[in-house]
Amino acid sequence: MTGEVPENKPMERAIRQKLVETLNPVHLDIINESYMHNVPPGSETHFKVVVVSDKFDNLPLIKRHRLVNDALRSELQNGVHALSVVAKTPTQWKEGTQVSPSPACRGGFGK
Amino acid sequence: MNVITGANRLKFNNCSIITSLWRFYASGSAENIEELVKKNKVVVFMKGVPEEPRCGFSNAVVQIFRMHGVTYDAHDVLKDEELRQGIKAYSNWPTIPQVFIGGEFIGGCDIMLQMHQNGELVEELRKAGIKSALLDKEQQMSKTEDTK
After folding, report:
1. Count: domains in chain A
2. Which entry of A15, A83, B7, B77 is 20 to 30 Å from B97 by CA?
3. Mean of the pLDDT values across residues B50-66?
4. Is A105–B92 a contact, with Cβ atoms under 8 angstroms apart?
5. Average pLDDT estimate for A3-18
6. What are the backbone dihedrals phi and psi of residue B35, each rounded to the nearest 5 degrees, phi first?
């Protein structure tokens, strides 16, 4: 799961590292969705993360999202403009691994 | 040289009064946001306006509330940078849109979508005294089924 990210994706790497450290996920996807938005090619501004961790057990959705947001605080302040979060427990992940697609951009980036 | 003269002190005091007034009335202040989120049962901070959302995530929230037939206050953060930063600090949530129901922060687009899908949104609205239009539809459908 780790070690496959090329050098030229510093943000993706930072996100992966932070989430692995904080949440010790059994499954982790970091999807760069920047290409769907009004930003230059190769940007690392819009991400979706799929985090499966037993740290989410018995936590309501908002608290799970807060754990992810807190782990990525500095990334969110330094370049990550949009973050979509899928936060599941290992049991929920076994029940279904379907992740719905993010909505299409409507041009609001950078006003 | 470091002595503050009476006149300077007065100026300084006036300044701090103005600063605190400004803080109170500024759109991004916690006081102002607290007032905004309590003004209506449902309050949404979004990019663009409900008639023309400027972001897919904001649009998703608008569509969800449309399905539930919910009216709400919408605030366009693209028109007010101070509000945009202020709301993030107020709810300690890094992204827009942000939804408040009954004065409480509920979440962003992902959470709204999930709550819509698992039925929690209907319940959350009910707690705030709002009946989701989806419930009416369900009742109508079961009535039609009854008469069949």
Report:
1. 1
2. A15
3. 97
4. no
5. 82
6. -65, -45
Q: Is the pLDDT of residue B15 over 80?
A: no
Of B77, B46, B100, B134, the closest CA to residue A62 belongs to B100
- The answer to whether residue A111 is domain-embedded is no
* Topology, domain B6-147: Glutaredoxin (3.40.30)
Residues of A with CB under 8 A from a CB of B: 61-62, 65-66, 69, 73, 76-77, 82-86, 100, 102-109, 111
Q: Is residue A109 part of a domain?
A: no
Q: What is the pLDDT of residue A109?
A: 58
**Averaged confidence pLDDT in chain B:** 87
A62 min Cα distance to partner chain B (Å): 6
Helix axes B30-39, B81-91, angle to 10 degrees: 80
A52 in Cβ contact with A28 (< 8 Å): yes
ipTM for the assembly: 0.85
DSSP string, A7-62: TT-HHHHHHHHHHHHHH--SEEEEEE-GGGSSS-TT---EEEEEEE-GGGTT--HH
Range of the domain at A35: 10-94
User: Which residue is associated with the tokens 């009910």?
Assistant: B126
Q: Which residues of A touch B109 (CB under 8 A)?
A: 84, 103
Residue found under tokens 């599941």: A88
User: What does the alpha-carbon distance between residue B30 and residue B40 come to, in Å, rounded to a whole number?
Assistant: 17
Measure the CA–CA gap between A59 and B83, rounded to whole angstroms.
30
Distance, CA of B94 to CA of B108 (rounded, Å): 10
- pLDDT reported for residue A111: 44
Q: Say how many C-beta atoms besides its own lie within 10 A of residue B44's C-beta.
A: 24
Geometric angle at alpha carbon A40, from A34 and A45, rounded to 5°:
35
